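can u do me a favor
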């Protein structure tokens, strides 16, 4: 593929999937013995479309890429991107280039999360959910979840088309603890009521934990969810891998973000913080969470009013919050409670050990070094 064309398509359809990613201004030489997509360093991926291409573009990010065994690894997405373009190579030279690329990202998502045998059917689910996301059912936004289990056996003879054509599939699952399950050929298996009280999935929004855990129970399972905000969420291997929000697809990498957090150092606290920010984001509640480093144990006092400090409890708000939190550190609080605390207008402050210092606080601007998430 022509280098300028690949660079144009990459900027338009690949980079937006990854926050903070960029393409190097110049390519590097490549030969036919080199893979079309390869790790060049923890922060660099080289890619081209055809083995015969004499160059590779360099895709990089300051944040390290996920490791090879991580289900949410960026290189898998880049591989899907490259392979789809290879199939479209000749067509992209014609007048239909714009039409072909307009639906490109949905194909990329389907390929990145599924095996070849079920890629087409994952694409069918994405398209159906996308259609439902623009509509109402009895005046209410449609929510739902559909899963594919490639190793399931079924003899119902009922295909997905039957659910889609009559719109009954739009109300036969709720998108958080019930779903419709199909085999890899989209033959109906069963309606599943999931236990929402099972353990929460750390790399998924809490509301969809039951569905995320369903994909983790057997290799190759994929679930597509439509939530009440018209967003599409795609799960595999117990992780949220893709989301389409406001019409834009995003790829979520979890472990690299956790690894990049400078404070707190305790992985349990980091995980609790990340989970809660994920919940606040997909719950549309918003959040401002600040971490006070070990070197600022006292100086944070100047940033927050005494009426917001939980250690003093001199206001009605802090007395009530103190009774709820009971001096427990953030990571030992119930995940639902953590999300609710973050939803209170203002900032939540923690120290480096996870102790809750303030909730719903107005933080004064200061030169004190801090990490705000």
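np, heres the sequence
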């Amino acid at each position: 593929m022509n280098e300028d064309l690949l660079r144009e398509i990459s900027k338009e359809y690949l980079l937006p999937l990854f926050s903070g990613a960029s393409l190097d201004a110049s390519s590097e030489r490549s030969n036919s013995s080199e893979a079309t997509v390869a790790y060049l360093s923890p922060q660099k991926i080289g890619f081209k479309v055809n083995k015969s291409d004499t160059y590779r573009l360099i895709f990089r990010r300051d944040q390290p890429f996920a490791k090879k065994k991580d289900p949410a690894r960026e290189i898998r997405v880049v591989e899907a991107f490259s392979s789809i373009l290879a199939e479209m190579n000749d067509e992209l030279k014609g007048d239909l280039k714009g039409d072909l690329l307009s639906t490109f990202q949905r194909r990329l998502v389907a390929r990145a999360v599924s095996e070849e045998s079920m890629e087409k059917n994952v694409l069918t689910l994405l398209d159906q959910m996308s259609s439902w996301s623009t509509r109402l059912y009895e005046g209410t936004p449609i929510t739902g979840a559909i899963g594919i289990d490639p190793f399931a056996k079924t003899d119902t003879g009922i295909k997905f088309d039957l659910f889609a054509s009559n719109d009954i599939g739009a109300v036969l699952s709720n998108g958080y603890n019930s779903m419709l399950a199909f085999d890899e050929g989209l033959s109906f298996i069963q309606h599943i009521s999931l236990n929402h009280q099972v353990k929460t999935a750390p790399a998924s929004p809490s509301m969809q934990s039951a569905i995320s855990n369903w994909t983790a129970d057997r290799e190759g399972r994929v679930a597509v969810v439509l939530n009440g905000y018209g967003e599409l969420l795609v799960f595999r291997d117990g992780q949220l891998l893709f989301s389409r929000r406001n019409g834009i697809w995003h790829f979520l990498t979890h472990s690299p973000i956790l690894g990049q957090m400078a404070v707190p150092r305790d992985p349990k606290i980091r995980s609790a913080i990340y989970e809660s920010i994920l919940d606040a984001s997909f719950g549309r509640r918003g959040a401002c969470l600040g971490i006070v480093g070990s070197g600022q144990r006292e100086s944070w006092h100047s940033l927050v009013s005494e009426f917001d400090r939980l250690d003093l409890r001199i206001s009605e708000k802090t007395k009530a919050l103190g009774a709820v939190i009971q001096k427990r550190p953030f990571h030992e609080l119930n995940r639902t409670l953590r999300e609710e605390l973050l939803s209170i207008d203002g900032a939540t402050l923690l120290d480096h050990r996870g102790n809750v210092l303030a909730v719903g606080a107005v933080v004064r601007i200061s030169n004190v070094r801090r990490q705000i998430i």
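The mean pLDDT is 90. hope that helps!!
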